[in-house]
Amino acid sequence: MAKLNWTLDDLKFQLNSNPLIKGWVITEENVHRRERYFLLEKNRVATDQDRNVRARIISVKLFVHLKKPGRQGEISKKFFTSIPLKDQIDSAIEAAIQTDHQAWELPKELPKNIPLVLTTDPDMAEDLDGVSDQLTSRIAATVLKARKSVFNSAELFLSIHDRQLHLSNGLTHRTSQSRIYTEAAFSFSKALPSGKVVSDEYLNSHWAGHLNQLPIEEIFDQAADRAEHSLDVTKPVTGQYSVIIDSEVISTLLNGYVSQLWASNAYHGLPFIQRNQDFIPEARGDLLTIILDPSLPFGADTTALSNQGLLQMPLKLVDQNRVIETATDKQFGDYLGNAPTTVRGNLVIQPGKLSHQELTQAAPQVIEILQFSGLFADPNTGTFSSEIRLAKLHDNQTGKTTYIKGGSLSGSIRENFRGLKLSNSVTQQSHFSTEQPQGQGYFGPEFALISDVSIVG
Q1: Residue 95 sits in a domain of what CATH number?
Q2: What pLDDT band is residue 104 in, cutting at 50, 70 and 90?
Q3: Which domain holds residue 62?
């Protein structure tokens, strides 16, 4: 009878025993997550749902021999301990044989003197339930503050991700990471002269890797304040504007666009910016200096090793708008004949010299984006677009600031970042998704002013 509930040792033994298999990478992730959903009930915050979730995910990347010289098959699959192991391995091998990739090798030498990086909040690691209760009390207290807007709902997710990385070259590496997500929704209603009552809701969300990065009161206050202003709006007038974007948008745009500095883009024939080329063509504003740093405490992509088992160290990619390095992993280093470099890490942007107030006064009319409805960004072209969920129009000719909503914004990093102005205030951003096991981290200016952005009212 087939053996069920197999172990990782069983998996590694069978992979090593199969002559068709050239190499493998196993990632095991054990997740402990607390989920709470909140509603307002009888003028107090009530817990609508309270979930305690535990999950185990085993992912295997297989490399198999092919009869073609210099080629190999590759496949990535999830494995399940409740399904017979041999059946899953045979299925993965069969799928891998149907692929055709240029051959490459995992590192032959194991890393030495692996640095210690800080990725897990100690309070969360020790008592996830207790931290959940503490944050719940803070949420309840801030919701009960007197406001013109009304609290609708909130969510709080806390999780600890324990991972093990196993490579066929003998490497075993264990890591842990804490993640926090919260969101708050407030609504505001008012009566029109006709007597009709209109209402609108504003949703604010935030990711963090440590409790010190979670300003709950600020998140809820901001959602409540912006909900109050969401009805006192006009549509923007069509035209070209100087636009202030915040760190969340900066992180989204640049974390995607820097993929053009990756060796994988060069190999696949995708847009690629070589060393000694300008990162932003014809840049004349604040010149970007960009560092990929996997060592920063509690960053979303803080790690000591890459997924291929190579040491990851801070790497300066761009110096004053001049590209000076290419992010190269072992696979594409082998393909292109280059030594591997750092490919994991948080994006670090050097700050500018202007305050937020000075940015709002940098042009006759400045639009400050408070929230997009859904930002679309293409890393290959550098273009981006979205509907404006809420923004401020700073009219420096009249001295008035008004709220706007609606209309579409579109632009291009290659064009609208030419006259870039960065704030002197800095902040940290984290973002995680279910699609990617690693997070997206940002340490840099809190705001940026981009110019000649097209807005259609």
Answers
A1: 3.30.2290.10
A2: very high
A3: 8-231
